[in-house]
Write a structure and sequence with these properties.
This protein is an alpha+beta fold. The chain is built from 11 helices and 5 strands; from the N terminus they run ααββααααααβαββαα. The chain has a 3-stranded mixed beta sheet. About 2% of the residues have low confidence.
Length: 287
């Protein structure tokens, strides 16, 4: 399914979730709108621009440009800004509640506290997942991070679906928002897994802009075995640094040095051949 169709399906699911909120819809919409506005304000402050802002009857969606060019700490601040404002609003109305006894005040407390907790869940496509992804990316390979994040995301999606059935069995209540949230998390996680390689390749090209923007880029050198394929190297690339590979044979003899820009070009020209095969083609071209 193409990306546009996937987004359309996701939006339909979000619409169903929102309708299940009935009388809280308007107050929830206001809180979600403020959540997204806060993302935009912090993004602009850190140098990112929002290229698309859509408002629908079922919520809002913000698309930020050149986000991947920012430092990790700045990206975390952008992602955490939305949940943070919901927590602040919840706290503010909690204080107001001491002086004003109103159902509206109580609902804003619960809605914003719920939005804070929900968005901090480390499951796609929520802010908590993006924050955890950035933290883990500084400690391990990108493909390993994606594997861990997918497992965590699937687990939370399954929890929502199990809670849906528990509500029916124990309380006798049908809470569609739990079921649809679980399905949505599973669907978007699956889509994320399928496109992870393309996302990584895109991040490699974005590093050029990051270099120009920050005037420097950290390097990383790793030794690899010559029998493995080019695609295997993609799985161990650090997306935040410029990668250089020392290709070694069985005797730990250095065959050649390969930089990540050459890896991308080799994949485009030859496909997933082994480093041993590529070494011969490389040698043939240099003669």
């Amino acid at each position: 399914m193409k990306r546009g169709k996937r987004l359309f399906v996701a939006e339909l699911l979000l619409l169903a979730v929102l309708f299940s909120m009935n009388k809280h819809t308007i107050r929830a919409f206001i809180s979600i709108f403020i959540h997204e506005i806060c993302h935009i304000i912090v993004a602009n402050w850190k140098g990112s621009q929002f290229s698309k802002f859509q408002v629908h009857i079922y919520g809002t969606r913000v698309k930020l440009s050149n986000l991947d060019e920012l430092l990790d700490k700045d990206k975390i601040k952008i992602y955490i800004a939305g949940p943070a404002i919901n927590l602040f609003i919840s706290g503010m109305f909690f204080c107001i509640n001491f002086f004003v006894d109103s159902n509206i005040v109580s609902e804003f407390i619960l809605i914003n506290l719920g939005l804070f907790l929900f968005n901090m869940i480390p499951a796609y496509p929520l802010d908590g997942a993006r924050i955890l992804e950035i933290i883990l990316s500084n400690k391990m390979f990108y493909k390993k991070v994606q594997s861990i994040m997918s497992q965590v995301s699937y687990a939370f999606g399954l929890c929502f679906i199990i809670l849906f059935f528990l509500f029916i069995l124990k309380v006798g209540e049908i809470n569609l928002s739990l079921l649809i949230s679980g399905i949505l998390i599973w669907y978007i996680t699956y889509s994320q897994q399928k496109t992870s390689t393309y996302i990584l390749m895109g991040n490699i090209f974005m590093k050029r802009n990051k270099l120009i923007r920050n005037k420097y880029l950290d390097n990383r050198i790793i030794s690899v075995y010559y029998k493995q394929g080019l695609v295997n190297l993609m799985s161990i690339i650090d997306k935040n640094r410029f990668n250089t590979f020392y290709v070694l044979n069985d005797d730990l003899k250095l065959l050649f040095i390969m930089h990540e820009d050459e890896l991308i070009e080799a994949l485009k020209v030859y496909g997933n051949i082994s480093l041993e095969e590529y070494s011969k083609k490389r040698l043939g071209k240099s003669i």
